[in-house]
Each structure stands twice: as C-alpha cells, then as structure tokens.
Amino acid sequence: MEQQIRQINLEDEKPTVQQAMARLQLELRLAKRQDICVLKIIHGFGSTGNGGKIRVAVRKELPALQKRGQIRFFIPGEKLTIFEEDTRRLLQLCPAFRKDHDIDRHNNGITVVVLKDRKG
C-alpha cells in the first residue's frame, strides 16, 4: 500500500498564530489516525505579514513534538533537497513524496513533517 501524503495550508483565511497552531495540532492528530506518512505544511514566509509569524511558531513547535516522539522528524522547505540526509530519509520512508514539486526548490514557506508510524 502506498504511503499517503497530506498538504495543509495554515495561511488559509488569514488566521492568528494561535488559530494556525491549533489547526496544526488538529491536523497532526487526524493525519496519525488516517495513516498519513507525510504532512506538508504551508505556512508562508512572511511576505503577507502573517506567514512569518506562523512559520516561526510552527518551526518552534516541531522540535518539541519530535523530542516527545509525536513526529519522526521534519524538514524545513529550504532544506528539502536530495543533498540533505533528512530528505533522502524521507524519500526512503515515503517514496510517493518523490513526485512533490517542492523538492530542490528551497521553499522556506513550507515545512515537511514525517509522522511517527504506529510501530514506533
């Protein structure tokens, strides 16, 4: 069975940082229940004023989630390149992600989260 990928846009409807972070938590819970392998988060990079704050909050929260074992690891969009070890690891765990158009585009408006599977 091919691993699933879900994309969410935390900038939709111009939420506050708190609203965006609440949505992130909800989407992470849903993705785990639905056996999603990868969650691609669009958070923007600050060109609209809100994206920068959401991006900072997301990237501050993800290391804590990883430390607690709630996600396997994450890759900032600007490091989503085949020259990075984490990207190669992502592609091994979820080969379907090879089709994603953001690989090697250095897009700092996204972050890719690899979710922890049920076995650990």
Please give a quick description of this structure.
This protein has 120 residues and is an alpha+beta fold.
Question: Can you put this structure into words, describing what you see?
Answer:
- With 120 residues, the chain is of the alpha+beta class.
- The chain is built from three helices and four strands.
- The chain has a four-stranded mixed β-sheet with strand order 1-2-4-3, sandwiched between helices.
- Helix 1 (17-33) links the parallel strand 1 (4-9) and strand 2.
- The protein is globular, with a radius of gyration of 13 Å.
Features:
120 residues; alpha+beta; 4-stranded mixed beta sheet; 4 strands; 36% helix; 21% strand
What is the makeup of the main sheet?
A: 4 strands, mixed
Specify the structural class. alpha+beta
Shape: globular
Q: Oligomeric form of this entry?
A: single chain
Number of strands: 4
* Approximate strand percentage: 15-25%
What distance lies between the first and last C-alpha atoms, to the nearest angstrom?
A: 18 Å
* Alpha carbon gyration radius: 13 Å
Number of helices: 3
State the share of residues found in helices, binned by percent. Answer: 25-40%
The pLDDT mean sits at 90
Give the SSE order as H and E letters.
EHEHEHE
Task: Please state how the strands of the largest beta sheet are arranged side by side.
Answer: 1-2-4-3
Low-pLDDT stretches are none
